Amino acid sequence: MEITRLFDIVYHQRDNYPQKDALAAKENGQWRQYSTQEFIDKINQFSRSLLKYGIKKGDKVGLIANNRPEWNIADYGMLQVGAINVPIYPTISEGEYEFIFNNAEIRICFVSDNELYNKVMAIKDNVPSLEEVYTFDDVRAARHWSEFMEPGEYADNQHEVDDAMQAINPEELATLIYTSGTTGNPKGVMLSHLNVVSNIQGTSKYLPL
């Protein structure tokens, strides 16, 4: 299997080096492990939900979260259908959020917790493109990401996901990563699948992967 797009990596992992604990995180004080196959199943569920929501190729999705499996699931789920992941620092100001959200024209956003939810909701009315905000943690009055994932439980549109994956070119935009803005407003750095995959391929010669 030739790896040219970022989501190719996880299928290469499944076919060659499947793991029982590809991802792990503490949930309610207990370790929760995700096997490689379960990770892929969750990714596809997220992709199906994106399509059922109406997210199209090229649409921007915000992601503001700490290091956690949900971040990876959402990231790969976006990449598979051509949605653009816009990961944003959790520690920046509401004003910077407002600028980035408008500059990128983010349609939906996923955040970790109550603090980040409140920061995004504080600027939501100033971002015409922003339709919904979902949380990974249970937050009062917020829409939980399980609600977003629910339509994707049914694989009736998996063929649409498969078709979308096949149509994605390695040189197409994968993510917009905004700079810290130390010389003015943050600037969105456009990275393609190939930009990141080539880095992985280049370093794999020197790392015992």
Layout of SSEs?
Layout: H1 8-16, E1 23-27, E2 30-34, H2 36-53, E3 60-64, H3 69-81, E4 84-87, H4 94-104, E5 106-111, H5 114-123, E6 132-135, E7 143-144, H6 145-149, H7 158-167, E8 173-178, E9 188-192, H8 193-204
Parallel strand pairs: 3-4, 3-5, 5-6, 6-7
Antiparallel strand pairs: 1-2, 8-9
**β-sheet strand percentage:** 15-25%
How would you state the average pLDDT, rounded? 95
* Portion of residues within helices: 40-55%
Rg, rounded, reads: 17 Å
Tell me what you see in this structure:
The protein is of the alpha/beta class and 209 residues long. Helices cover 42% and strands 20% of the residues. The protein has eight helices and nine strands. The strands form three sheets. A five-stranded parallel sheet has the order 4-3-5-6-7, with helices on both faces. Helix 2 crosses helix 3 and helix 4 packs across helix 5 (114-123). It starts with 7 loop residues before the first helix and ends in a 5-residue tail after the last helix. 34% of the residues are buried. The mean pLDDT is 95.
Keywords:
209 residues, globular, 8 helices, two-stranded antiparallel ribbon, five-stranded parallel sheet
Short description:
42% of the residues lie in helices and 20% in strands. It has 209 residues and is an alpha/beta fold.
